[in-house]
Amino acid sequence: MVTIKAPAAYYNEPGILERSGQYIRSLGHYALIIGGPTALSIAGERLNTSLLAAGIRTEIKTFAGQCTVEEIEAYTSIARGLNVELIIAVGGGKVLDLSKAVAEDARLPIVTIPTIPATCAAWSALTVLYDPHGKAAGYRPLLRSPELVLADTALLAQAPRRYLAAGIGDTLVKWHEFAVNLNGNAGSVALRSSVATAKLALDILERHATDVYNEVGQQAYQPDAAFIEVTDAIIWLAGLVGSIQDGSVHAAIAHGLHDSLTRIEDTHHSLHGEKVAFGLFTQWVLEGKQGAELEKLVSWLHELDLPITLSQLGITGDINQNVAAIAEGLALREGAAEQLNFAVTIEAVQKAIVQADALGQKIHSGLSQKVIV
Ligand SMILES: NC(=O)c1ccc[n+]([C@@H]2O[C@H](COP(=O)([O-])OP(=O)(O)OC[C@H]3O[C@@H](n4cnc5c(N)ncnc54)[C@H](O)[C@@H]3O)[C@@H](O)[C@H]2O)c1
Ligand SMILES: [Zn+2]
Fold first, then answer.
1. For the chain, first and last CA: distance in Å?
2. Alcohol dehydrogenase iron-type/glycerol dehydrogenase GldA domain location, by residue (predicted)?
């Protein structure tokens, strides 16, 4: 059995927000818009104008909390109480994740409109759950991806570029996380399909991500073909990688380390893709990567201003204690570690974090010779 979850349609075009009503109309005529306050202040008016012109009435609710089971229930009650015909989610990964679960529980179609290119949450059939304090609390697989994804590249290009870097980090990790599970074996078609899709995303990022990241910060930046490819990699390809499943387990070390990092209060100002990037750096050390190969990979993260040290993640307290807590908190799915050809014991992870942090500090302080990627 294989499941491949994807939206019925994914549009990635500049200015699509102004035309959103014509795409959304077929899904219903009364919508609950759930959006982050910043996202709505930027995109809300244009969205609403287009919806009204297409004959869609709306109710708007802001969401600024954690994506918890309780918040999902609360927003589901709102959707049910209003008797809306569809949900439109506008914002970053948290809002999109919450809204997808709400739509499933209220049995409504959902449209996602990402306003930052920081994750693949607009595409994926998955909601990442947290506790009210922002600590990872598990994953909720969803029956399907959103019906429609509207990625307005003009809007995405105007967001602060830190979010783009986080999205690049959260996407380049995919190939590294999935490919280590092949471990010289043929692997199932589902796994090979995920690895091949992740490789395409990685190729796009290797070709364009650094240039796009450097250009996006400039004034009056207009999204070009390279920007569109990079956002396709972040939203579509990364989304698809995780959506191809045959029930087999695989180890996702960088994401496991991300989840563990969320349990350390100090990291809460850092983004999902930033924590994942440091998790990937640690995975590279665990894999046994070293020397010029490792420095080249890490220098790329550094060029994107992704964290390569614990202090860049916000961790400033007792380092040994924190490293032990991160390593102990890493939970791989049962049976997953056996797929790997390197050890993921608590001791090995502790050692790898310390080693990664030391090399990261060296590169960050410019002591290590810069390796051109
Ligand atoms: N479901 C999935 O497959 C999946 C994948 C990766 C991450 N996630 C989840 O997504 C969440 C992380 O998402 P995120 O990194 O997008 O962060 P986020 O949702 O917390 O958003 C970050 C910030 O971006 C701001 N923002 C939104 N649009 C903006 C704009 N246009 N301009 C300026 N600021 C804007 C918001 O106000 C918010 O404070 C986590 O909960 C993570 O677990 C889910
Ligand atoms: Zn991720």
1. 40
2. 7-153
What's the mean per-residue pLDDT of the chain? 95
Closest atom, ligand 1, to C-alpha of 273? 15
Fold of 249-360: Dehydroquinate synthase-like, alpha domain (1.20.1090)
241 touches ligand 1 (CB under 6 Å) = no
Question: Is the Cβ atom of 27 under 6 angstroms away from ligand 1?
Answer: no
How far, in Å, is the centroid of ligand 2 from the Cα of 317? 26
Contact 235, 151 (CB under 8 A): yes
DSSP assignment letter at 371: P
For 287-340, the pLDDT digits (tens) are 999 999 999 999 999 999 999 999 999 999 899 999 999 999 999 888 888 888
CATH code given to domain 1-247: 3.40.50.1970
Strands (E), 16-85: 30-35, 57-62
Q: Please name which ligand lies nearest the alpha carbon of 269.
A: 1
Please tell me the distance between residue 150's alpha carbon and the centre of ligand 1 in angstroms: 16
Q: Where are the domains of the chain?
A: 1-247, 249-360
What is the ipTM score, two decimals?
Answer: 0.99
**Atom nearest to 127 CA in ligand 1:** 1
